[in-house]
Write a structure and sequence with these properties.
CATH architecture: 3-Layer(aba) Sandwich
Structural class: alpha+beta
Number of helices: 3
Helix content: 10-25%
CATH class: Alpha Beta
Strand content: 35-45%
Number of strands: 7
Number of domains: 1
Bound molecules: coenzyme A
Shape: globular
């Protein structure tokens, strides 16, 4: 499966059970009450009619977006779903994100989709305590 078989659409309340399942299977991702996502810009990626992943962003200021969460079902990873979800982010905004220093796979995804490292927040994460790597993709 590659990107052309991934369908992106807005997240709806009917998706929340599946989103919760993907989140639970993705301990590297942020863990929110899934219904909270609907207050933000959230998108799901469907493969074969099933939700395979989701992304949530927040417009913190005009032209400035923060990535709140991104996760793909483990059994459907490395098939272009994460890249497709990032493709849904607005190109006309600066996009900021934080990622655990140990989460090399997500960092690889971000580096391969135009993000660059701009800083580090020592001890930003709890359970376990870990630095955050801060990344930015500047608007086109
Ligand atoms: C990070 C995550 C979203 C990637 O999703 P995905 O659908 O597997 O990613 P893609 O298949 O689109 O991969 C795109 C690129 O990311 C990088 N990548 C993805 N998985 C990788 C892996 N296991 N090892 C190394 N690089 C990897 C590669 O550069 C890849 O491009 P390529 O396949 O052409 O080499 C997924 O692994 C995940 O849900 N992880 C747990 C949650 C998480 O870490 N979220 C981010 C929190 S900040």
């Amino acid at each position: 499966m590659r990107n052309d078989r991934v369908v992106l659409r807005p997240m709806t309340p009917e998706d929340l059970v599946r989103v919760a399942m993907i989140q639970q299977a993705s301990p590297e991702a942020a863990s929110w009450e899934p219904a909270e996502y609907l207050k933000y810009r959230c998108v799901v990626a469907e493969c074969g009619g099933e939700v395979a992943g989701f992304a949530v962003v927040h417009e913190v200021a005009p032209g400035e977006i923060e990535l709140l969460n991104l996760a793909v079902l483990p059994s459907l990873r490395r098939q272009g779903v994460g890249r497709a979800l990032i493709g849904a982010f607005p190109a006309g905004s600066d996009i900021y994100l934080e990622v655990r220093e140990s989460n090399r796979i997500a960092q690889e995804l971000y580096l391969s989709t135009g993000f660059r490292l701009i800083g580090r927040r020592p001890g930003y994460y709890e359970g376990p305590t870990e630095d955050a790597i801060v990344m930015l993709r500047q608007k086109c």
